[in-house]
Amino acid sequence: MYTSKLSAFALILSLCALFFSLYRSAPAPQSITTQTSTHYDRIMKTRTVRCAYFSWRPFIMKDPNTGTVSGFIPDILAQIGHDLNLKFDYVEDVNIAQMFEGFSTDRYDAVCGPVTPTVSRTTVSDFIKPVGYASMDPYVRIDDHRFDQGVAAIDKPEVKITAIEGEASASVVALKFPSAKLVTLPNISDNTQLLMELTSGKADIVIVDTASAKMFMASHPNKIRKIEGIPPILLSGTLAIPTGEFKLKSMLDSSVDYLVSTGFISAMARKYGVQGMFYLPSIPHEDVK
User: Fold this and answer.
1) Contact, 211 vs 274, CB < 8 A?
2) Span 42-91, pLDDT tens digits
3) C-beta neighbour count of 124 within 10 angstroms
4) Rounded CA gap, 39 and 247, in Å?
5) Which residues pair with 225 in a beta bridge?
6) Number of C-beta neighbours around residue 7 at 10 A
7) Cβ neighbours around 137 below 10 Å, total
């Protein structure tokens, strides 16, 4: 019996030695490496950021004759591009409701407008740090005093509030005036068209940022006014980028931080006349006046 146990043990040792020998002689498994080309990698290689954009005066404007894009946001991005040796190329004029679709088809690297990161938008895009916060207020025709009593007078089913489809003010209406009737304009509309709905009587109220309203009132005097006594909603304005682009976000976040702390963004606010209407991130040494 002892001999049979010894033979069995010897057999096991032989099998183990054979298995180890086969394992050592087998070719090593090939490692599979998947290299995903990111937007950040492409930007660093080409030194170009491809921008989608939409017109929203005075933050971003397009000259219809030359096609040149200018404004508060493009000036900030031009400075970032100068510091990083990058070019911001405005490659596609998009409508607001569909502005994120080009990320999945790799048509652009960022939406370079004053985009507000609403809750629903965070499912399809990431956002860099805000360059500022727009004051959103309700505006009416200058001779319309039906809503001077405040929110209670506005939040009624018979009151028509107009917003652009997919634009952040539409979500503001749903939050602040849930009982009012929301009427949307096509997503190719801009802030000027929105305010024209008010002056033409098609809307009772529009919710719009103060800077847009001021520009409209300068060219259309004695047409509209802000309803006083209603606290404004401050919505951040920033750039949208594809989800998961952590290197790109970090680079742009740090760039915005630097331009805020050095006073460059506040200087752009004065240049475009939006100081006191577009509030900047906290600046310990300077207030925009």
Assistant:
1) yes
2) 999 999 999 999 988 889 999 989 999 999 999 999 999 999 999 999 99
3) 14
4) 9
5) 140
6) 10
7) 19
* β-strand pairing of 181-185 with 224-226: unpaired
* Paired tokens of 226: 């802000």
Structure tokens at 153: 């007078």
How confident is residue 178, by pLDDT bands cut at 50, 70 and 90?
A: very high
Distance (Å) of CA 140 to CA 101, 116, 145, 208, 226: 34, 23, 8, 11, 6
Give the largest CA-CA distance in the chain.
Answer: 113
CA distance 137 to 152: 15
DSSP secondary structure, 76-142, as one string: HHHHHHHHHT-EEEEEEE--GGGTTHHHHTTS-SEEEEEE---TGGGGT-EE---SEEEEEEEEEET
Which pTM does this prediction carry? Answer: 0.77
Other C-beta atoms within 10 Å of 151: how many? 14
Distances (CA, A) of 106 to 71, 103, 285: 25, 5, 41
Nearest CA to 139 out of 168, 162, 118, 155 is that of 162
Phi–psi pair at 203, nearest 5 degrees: -125, 145
Whether the bond between 58 and the residue before it is cis, its omega within 30 degrees of 0, is yes
49, two tokens: 């950021």
**Angle, in degrees to the nearest 10, between helices 264-271 and 72-84:** 150
